[in-house]
Amino acid sequence: DAGVIQSPRHEVTEMGQEVTLRCKPISGHDYLFWYRQTMMRGLELLIYFNNNVPIDDSGMPEDRFSAKMPNASFSTLKIQPSEPRDSAVYFCASSLRGVGPQHFGDGTRLSIL
Amino acid sequence: RKEVEQDPGPFNVPEGATVAFNCTYSNSASQSFFWYRQDCRKEPKLLMSVYSSGNEDGRFTAQLNRASQYISLLIRDSKLSDSATYLCVVNKGTYKYIFGTGTRLKVLA
């Protein structure tokens, strides 16, 4: 079975540019999570969705960040405009019913110059 | 106090050694528990779920102690490939997964 699929794997762009990260959860999973990981702050939950509806976006750092889930098999995390401090690894994860184990994608390594 | 606490380590152990990690959690209503391993610059990977009765998967044994609010992970006959960061994860039943900061393990030849 396919796991969580994220794209792109790596993204390098200049500050001020729009960045869009993509995620396809495991089929049948009804919860989707976006995380950010840095050495300084560890793993931070940004937002999660249940049945495509955003439930808690309190971890989204600023209005520059937005996330959508137009259907059960696709989600995006957008940063506009991007800043160097947004450089991190962004993970997407999905789970079944919100209490089973989460399964993570390979992550997107984002570098903002 | 953090909701989930782990000793950051590092734990440096020789090959073949047995090593144990503990993780404490503060919310007594927590419902499900997991151990993940994370290699440098990679995604967290589920190692095992932790059940009340304890569970074993090869060289790995996980235990849950609800009374004392901790979970443990025991690795027997450690291999070089076990070197990684081990993350304790607690689910509070509110669809929020609380991650510990991880315990670093280095298995030495």
In short:
Chain A is mainly β and 113 residues long. Helix content of chain A is 0%, strand content 55%. Chain B has 109 residues and is an all-beta fold.
Give the key terms:
heterodimer, A: 113 residues, mainly beta, seven-stranded mixed sheet, 11 strands, B: 109 residues, six-stranded mixed sheet, five-stranded antiparallel sheet, globular
Backbone shape of chain B: globular
In total, the number of strands of chain B is 11
What is the β-strand count of chain A? 11
Strand content of chain A: over 45%
Radius of gyration of chain A: 13 Å
What is the terminal-to-terminal distance of chain B?
A: 37 Å
Global mean pLDDT of chain B = 92
N-C termini distance of chain A: 37 Å
Which residue ranges of chain B are poorly predicted, with pLDDT under 50 across at least 5 consecutive positions?
Answer: none
Oligomeric composition of the shown chains: heterodimer
Largest sheet of chain A, in brief, is: 7 strands, mixed
**Which structural class do you get from the secondary structure elements of chain A?**
mainly beta
Instruction: Report the uncertain regions of chain A.
Output: none
Overall geometric form of chain A: globular
Give the helix level of chain B as a range of percent.
Answer: under 10%
Helix and strand run of chain B? EEEEEEEEEEE
SSE class of chain B? mainly beta
Helix amount of chain A, in percent? under 10%
